[in-house]
Design goal:
Oligomer: single chain
GO molecular function, one term: hydrolase activity
Radius of gyration: 18 Å
Distance between the termini: 28 Å
Number of helices: 10
Shape: globular
Strand order of the largest sheet: 1-2-4-3-5-6-7-8
Keywords: Hydrolase
Protein name: Alpha/beta hydrolase
Length: about 290
């Protein structure tokens, strides 16, 4: 197989913010919306695995990567407007959303009934107070003080996306291990892979998106698109519970739990992802919804 050509382009969102995206592949248009602590590059291997079948558009969400800033009016509506602008510009009718990006994809499907398919990978909806309140204030104080390892520990404990041993270890040890991880990752980072230190500020904004989803489960009853609810058998129980809840309200949906995979499944291989396995499920669903 020859090298896949990747081009860089941009679109202007409703409020004037520039959203930059990569394009690769050939076929029906498919937008991949990344999740928490990611940029578009974080899912570029997933896009490569899909590029033989789809024209993949891989944006950096606002405030991340090459795209414009969050802006004073940031929230879920701004993210929906960003994705809507990209769909208008490309004519794509299929969307894959990862984590918080899956929330954006599902809400865009409500506003855009013509969207044909959505693949929602483990959206972190806040169902019945799933996430603790008040942690963002502590996170912001630690970030402002330059204590990035401490802030990341605060975020990972609150969102329950860290390894299971995080829940039983003293904070001081967790902060030390996180600081070591940051240094090791920065030394090893190559090829545009964003580091956790660079992406740490984005946790504040993804937390804001999740907070906006509290008690809004019924709104997804109006989604007309075919939806694949995708997750991993090793992912946290609260994310599996969201998929189960969405199964009960989405009118046209299928669910797949990928054996042995977790919340990092869509990421590049260097970040413990299994993009080829995820791509196989996406191809299967979109070609036979």
């Amino acid at each position: 197989m020859g090298a896949i050509m990747i081009t860089l382009d941009e679109v202007t969102s409703k409020d004037g913010t520039t959203i930059t995206y990569h394009r690769l592949g050939d076929g029906p248009g498919l937008v991949l919306v990344h999740g928490v602590m990611q940029t578009g590059h974080s899912n570029i291997e997933l896009a490569r695995a899909l590029a033989a079948v789809f024209t993949c558009y891989v944006p950096d969400r606002r405030g991340r990567g090459r795209s414009g800033p969050y802006g004073p009016g940031y929230g879920l509506q701004r993210e929906v407007e960003d994705l809507d602008a990209l769909l208008d510009a490309t004519g794509a009718q299929h969307v894959v959303g990862v984590s918080s990006g899956a929330v954006v994809a599902l809400r865009t499907a409500i506003a855009r009934p013509a969207l044909r398919t959505v693949v929602a990978f483990e959206p972190p909806l806040d169902l019945g107070g799933t996430y603790p309140a008040g942690w963002v204030d502590r996170f912001d104080r630690e970030m402002a003080a330059g204590r990035i390892p401490a802030a990341l520990v605060t975020g990972m404990l609150a969102t329950r996306l860290g390894p299971s041993f995080f829940n039983v270890m003293p904070r001081a040890v967790l902060e030390l291990l996180t600081a070591m991880m940051l240094k090791n990752q920065e030394k090893a980072a190559t090829g545009g892979e964003p580091t956790y230190r660079e992406l740490a500020p984005s946790l504040h904004y993804d937390a804001q998106l999740v907070a906006e989803t509290t008690a809004d489960l019924d709104v997804y009853r109006s989604v007309e698109a075919e939806v694949l609810l995708l997750g991993g058998t090793k992912s946290p129980a609260h994310l599996k519970a969201v998929l189960t809840a969405l199964e009960g309200v989405l009118p046209r949906t299928r669910r797949v739990d990928m054996a042995g995979l977790d919340h990092s499944a869509t990421s590049n291989a260097a970040m413990r992802g299994k993009p080829e396995q995820v791509a196989a499920e996406i191809r299967r669903f979109i070609t036979n919804p």
